[in-house]
Specification:
Shape: extended
Order of helices and strands: HEHHE
Helix content: 25-40%
Oligomer: single chain
Largest sheet: 2 strands, antiparallel
Strand content: 15-25%
Distance between the termini: 53 Å
Radius of gyration: 18 Å
Number of strands: 2
C-alpha cells in the first residue's frame, strides 16, 4: 500500500525559531535563564540505526559549516530547550 497522506503545512515554523521565541519572551517580561539547541530523539535514532545516514549527516554538516564559515550550527541540533523566568519587575498585563 502506498502512503498517500501529505504532511500538514506548518504556518508558524519561522515564528517558533528559538531566537524569535526568546525575543518574544523578553518583550513580554520573561527572562531567558537557559537556552540550548539539542539533537532530538528522532534525529539521533535515525543516525544511530543507519550507517549511511550517519555519514550523510556528517558530510552535509561539514559542508554547511565550511560554506558558511562556521555560521551555521549543526543540522543534528533540531530541538531547543528553553527555561524562562517571569521577571519580578515586569508590569502585569
Amino acid at each position: 500500500m502506498k502512503y498517500q497522506s501529505h504532511p500538514f503545512r506548518t504556518y508558524l515554523r519561522f515564528a517558533v525559531l528559538p531566537e524569535r521565541v526568546m525575543m518574544f519572551a523578553q518583550e513580554n517580561g520573561l527572562q531567558v535563564v537557559y537556552h540550548r539547541l539539542i539533537e532530538g530523539d528522532m534525529t539521533r535514532h535515525f543516525r544511530e540505526r543507519l550507517l549511511l545516514a550517519r555519514a550523510l549527516f556528517a558530510l552535509i554538516d561539514l559542508a554547511a559549516r565550511i560554506v558558511s564559515l562556521g555560521g551555521i550550527q549543526s543540522f543534528h541540533l533540531d530541538s531547543c530547550a528553553l527555561i524562562l523566568r517571569k521577571d519580578a519587575q515586569a508590569p502585569r498585563a
